[in-house]
Design goal:
By secondary structure, the protein is α/β, with parallel strands linked by helices. The protein is 31% helix and 22% strand. The strands form 5 sheets. It has an 11-stranded mixed beta sheet with strand order 7-6-14-8-9-13-10-12-11-15-16, sandwiched between helices. Strands 28-29-25-24-23-30-31 form a 7-stranded mixed beta sheet, with helices on both faces. Strands 17-20-19-18-21-22 form a 6-stranded mixed beta sheet, sandwiched between helices. Helix 15 crosses helix 16 and helix 20 crosses helix 21. Fe (iii) ion binds next to helix 13 and strand 23.
């Protein structure tokens, strides 16, 4: 199957033979399309069969000319265009010269070689960088990008560094954060009271020793603090869980290198490319089952994936070289607060968690978390967009005012545009505590001052109680509310440049509907600023409201109760004890604190509970995720009974009664819960395809947090494609609420 991929490469790619290289490679692979240089980087569009395009993407990075260097590599798939040849186009600069701030770039091979060369003056120096690598977004105070306007300003360059910095033939010519052991920042090891124990190489060496002894070390990284411990030690990982009050949510890992990663996980070429990319995100990788793992079972219990990153800063490289073992590298924060960026904050917040602090004196100006990506349906899909990606813009044409989009409530990001360049902020987090709310405000302020913008319009979620909504309304400029699931749909349209009519399938855990009901299984046909809600789940109740998100057995019970009433559900050996359910029964009967919802995420929770997979969720979406993981070893195309009822105005209502009844019957007949989990997913893909057929629009997009579920996403894409639909899903912008601000901003084009 032929596809078109759009690629934007920024970095030292102009004047180094990059265009002829791409031209030759395209012709060798018989790829059609074009390449052009612009002030913003090299733009490429390429059309070919998918496997050829994959090879093209891999070889662009691996075979590139010797003197070229990639500082960012963005790609996304578009509709076929039908190019006849591959051509080098005339440079054009119609995009204008908005000075773009680059993201933080992982250590380049040249710097890495110097760091481990005993004869080099930067041997084992943890702040080595050059024009091609190093911190950017996290150290820039103001534009234009110049050392004086970074947190490196306080370090006066030594004669040798200055000579490199002013020599046009040197790799460090105008490398703004350049430094060396003589003139640059230094690391220190502190105890938990902030008392300095050691500095420089001794500090790193001793931190490594403590990690090997099972201690927890807080490390000041690129975009904030990380908490680090030996991932091979059950005791160390358990201790970190206990101290961080994080009982089950998986921890991210840092592996010494790609070889050790392949010993623990299955790594496809696309996954390897992501791991080794300049963005260096956390990549979700399938754990190998044919090995004895060197990683503690406490790291990600019950999860067939590990979130893995490779060392991306010199400090990480040096530490990992000393250690040579996998480590936990999780956010240095209290649960759900932004990560700490400075020493006073870290000492205060991480007291009682970290035994030691590996700190340094290069200031971090803004928090930027590690990004997370997953390869689904053969493509990279960002789940958390932060380090390595932020603050690169997403282009939306047709914006002629300055607009601020305030985002959602969970996984908040904000967006702000300068013309057609939309700056989507780094991941901010859940706006549930004062620290996150302050971070939300400071990120807005930060982007506004950075690009000297002052919003004329503000867009926000329709939920009246969201902090982001209230903040947006307090600004005193024209404001517009955007329905949550419609923002998801528009976000996906912007992410994939979808043109023309499209059916949006917007499935997630929660979002405020136009009727005040909690929505989450919406099929939407966009009509400019309006949409037609063409299908959704038949509503069900959430006994206890918010409480049911954690006690998901309540949802399972409510689903069964609404079908079977006071019977025992005909469910033998079920998971519902009369002692617990009696009060829920009364809540449902008397309709006390039991709001209705059409949330697909909550249906996942309920089914997870009915199948006995998870009764209590200790973090958001845990029950739904474990329902996906249950499909891991199952291979079936079978699906459950389902029924789609007719709604008003040619709409559809997904009747989940037959589905739940079929689950109960099959459980009672002894069918394995994992098989039923797979059948549940397959049923949803059938339902999507059936409704798409009924609606009859050729293009279908899949958005919302539910489509981070790889089994659901891939199954639905396959069924839709087999039925002749063109299918779109998220690529560079998260399908979850991290993408909402972009969708809100897209919406503003209809109202300004
Ligand atoms: Zn470098
Ligand atoms: Zn120096
Ligand atoms: Fe959502």
């Amino acid at each position: 199957m032929k596809q078109r991929v759009k690629i934007v490469i920024r970095g030292a790619v102009q004047g180094v033979g990059f265009r002829p290289f791409v031209y030759r490679l395209a012709n060798e692979l018989n790829i059609k399309g074009w390449i052009v240089n612009s002030s913003q980087g090299v733009f490429i569009e390429a059309e070919a069969e998918v496997n050829i395009l994959n090879e093209f993407l891999l070889r662009l990075a691996s075979d590139k000319p010797k003197n070229s260097f990639i500082q960012s590599f963005e790609h996304s798939y578009l509709d076929l265009h039908g190019f006849g040849n591959f051509e080098i186009r005339e440079s054009n600069d119609k995009g204008g010269k908005t000075a773009l701030v680059l993201p933080d770039i992982s250590t380049c091979p040249d710097c890495l070689q110097e760091i481990f060369d005993p004869g080099n003056r930067r041997y084992l120096y943890p702040f080595t960088n050059c024009t091609n690598c190093g911190p950017r977004f996290t150290i820039i105070k103001d534009l234009p990008y110049d050392r004086a306007k970074t947190t490196m300003a306080e370090f006066v360059m030594c004669p040798e560094c200055l000579a490199e910095y002013t020599d046009p033939s040197d790799r460090r010519f105008h490398a703004e954060p350049t430094a060396c052991p003589v003139c640059g920042p230094q690391v220190e090891l502190w105890d938990s009271n902030g008392t300095k124990l050691l500095d420089k190489q001794d500090a790193i060496h001793t931190a490594a020793k403590y990690i090997l002894e099972g201690k927890i070390v807080a490390l000041k990284g690129i975009g904030g603090y990380q908490l680090i411990c030996d991932a091979g030690s059950d005791e160390a990982v358990k201790l970190l869980r206990l101290r961080k009050k994080r009982s089950e949510k998986p921890f991210a890992l840092m592996m010494p290198d790609i070889e050790s990663t392949k010993k623990e996980c299955e790594v496809s070429p696309a996954e390897e490319r992501s791991l080794l990319s300049v963005e260096a995100p956390i990549v979700l990788l399938k754990r190998r089952k044919d090995i004895t793992s060197a990683i503690s079972g406490e790291t990600a219990a019950g999860n067939p994936y590990y979130g893995i990153m490779l060392p991306y800063s010199p400090l990480h490289h040096i530490l990992m070289k000393e250690l040579g073992i996998p480590i936990i590298a999780t956010s240095g924060n209290l649960s759900e607060e932004p990560i700490c960026v400075d020493e006073p904050g870290a000492l205060e917040k991480l007291k009682g968690i970290a035994d030691y602090f590996l700190v340094h004196n290069r200031k971090i100006l803004r928090h930027v978390d590690d990004s997370i990506t997953r390869i689904s349906a053969g493509r990279e899909m960002l789940l958390r967009r932060a380090r390595g990606y932020a603050p690169l813009p997403v282009v939306i044409e047709g914006l002629n005012k300055t607009i601020l989009a305030a985002g959602a409530h969970l996984k908040n990001t904000i967006a702000l545009n300068k013309g057609s360049n939309v700056f989507l902020s780094q991941h901010i987090g859940d706006l549930e505590n004062i620290e996150s709310i302050n971070a939300f405000k400071s990120v807005i302020n930060d982007l506004e001052t950075f690009y000297e913008l002052s919003p004329q319009i503000v867009v926000h979620d329709m939920h009246p109680d969201y902090v982001s909504t209230q903040y947006a309304k307090s600004l005193g400029v024209t404001s517009h509310a955007v329905q949550h699931h419609y923002a998801h749909v528009l976000s996906c349209i912007a992410d994939s440049n979808i043109e023309g009519k499209v059916l949006g399938v917007s499935w997630d855990g929660t979002g405020f509907g136009t009727d005040g009901v909690i929505w989450g299984s919406e099929f939407m046909i966009p009509k400019g600023k309006d949409f037609f809600r063409v299908a959704h789940l038949m509503p069900f109740r959430l006994p206890g409201g918010e409480k049911s998100i954690h006690e998901v057995w309540r949802i399972g019970f409510a689903l069964l109760y609404s079908i079977y009433g006071n019977g025992d559900f005909g469910l033998t050996g079920h998971n519902f004890k009369a002692s617990e359910t009696e009060i829920i029964r009364q809540m449902l009967d008397k309709n006390i604190n039991s709001p209705v919802t059409t949330s697909m995420g909550r249906l996942f929770d309920g089914v997870s509970a009915i199948l006995g997979i998870r009764r209590h969720a200790s973090f958001e979406a845990q029950a739904a995720m474990e329902l996906e993981f249950a499909t891991d070893d199952v291979n079936t195309n079978d699906y459950l009974e389902y029924k789609i009822d007719a709604g008003e105005n040619n709409s559809y209502i997904i009747n989940w009664h037959p589905l739940v009844i079929d689950i109960v019957n099959k459980l009672n007949s002894g069918i394995d819960k994992n098989i039923l989990a797979a059948m549940f997913h397959n049923t949803l893909s059938e339902i999507i395809t059936d409704i798409a057929k009924g609606v009859g629009i050729e293009k279908v997009l899949l958005t919302g947090g539910c489509f981070q579920n790889k089994y659901l996403l891939e199954g639905s894409i396959k069924k839709l494609k087999n039925a002749g639909f063109k299918v779109y899903w998220h690529q560079r912008v998260p399908a979850n609420d991290g993408g909402i601000s972009l969708g809100q901003l897209k919406y503003s084009a209809f109202v300004n």
